[in-house]
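Hey, can you fold this?
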Amino acid sequence: MTLIAEDLLLLLLDEESGKPSADSAKLPRVLAGALVVELALGGSLRITGPGEQTKKDHVVVAGDPPADPLLRRVFDLVATASRPMKPQKVIEKSQKNLAKELAARLVAQGFVTEKQDKVWGLFPTTTWPARDTSREKVLRDALRSALVDGTTPTPHSAALISLISAVDLTHKVIVDADKKVLKTRAKQIAEGEWAGAAVRKAVSDVNAAVTAAIMVPVIVSTTSS
């Protein structure tokens, strides 16, 4: 079984060029957000609400540690923190080198190949063209069914749709449908009843954190120029 983050990366990689459709600011952060969402879906982590001892909107341990090493790393980050962190901070601390680690797992599973090259013969670059598109096809068909045909998505598909929507790339994953319709339907799914209240809160807060984390470099760049 692949992780939500692995499936998310697979969907965001162009089959031919192997380049991600998300830029270098968005990609690692939305992938880190996917790990947090999966931990919430599995009951290992949750995000606090009002009236709790821990201040609301902070990530806390809720269950047993996961077996997967990438998920376990995020779990341990939360479990060993000196004080509870907000989703944005968990994402920032989890995103370094994550895209490459997840891509290596996709390579090992035979879904993509790794291609190393140099831009202008100087700057090294790595891409991951498709090798076996069977998994990607299953994912796209499930997302199309929910986004275009209006079927009820599974929690896994709904989480993927919510995360893809957070970086405004639904139209890149489902390329032959109306962009506005896709955006509206993705938002409905993200806010819908596909999971329990605690998981929906995790998805909402992670999506907000991803958006905020993406905006920070833009704001810094604008104010420093």
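Oh, and this one too while you're at it.
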Amino acid sequence: MNQSVAVTIEGRYSAFYRWRFLGYQDTLYVWQGIQFFRECDIYGTVDFIFGDARALFQNCNVYARRPRQGQSNTITAQGRESGKNISGIVMQNCTIASAPELLPRLNVKTYLGRPWKNYSTTVIMHSLLDKLIDPSGWLEWAGQGHGIDKVYYAEYENRGPGANTSSRVKWARTIKYREANKFTARNFIQGQKWIGLTRIPYYLDL
């Protein structure tokens, strides 16, 4: 249950189809480059999908596990440091739920993510958010109050008992189609140019 990176990805273009990533804290380090994940299973506890890549997850299952005593779960921790970069973590049509070991302990707070750096960017859209998600949705990184106005944390047309945005933190946003369209495979990771070469089934748009 300790901090341990299972996979670090730093290639210019990377695609993963039906992989399973197992860990606790810091499971999947999407370090840099353009990355695409389709129909993968990802397990972890604290910041378990993290890094500064331009990473898109489609039709993936994301499972929060039971953390160490006194810890909360944070699913993402995106590390964009500059307003000039184009990076972020995007989840489209994914399922975010509890791993079996967490189900008896749903009193553990679980958040969609927290901003690792000042320009952190994370978007969850058309996804199923189960009841484990805390109503506030997102968690501020300790001591980061001075830069929280620069982060971009957004949700678009999610569903499920954890998808109600009425009690979300003030610095998160609920976006509409025109804004969400910027984060599709076509626009965010140039999907029409390279994903098709891998023969992975995917969709470009919302």
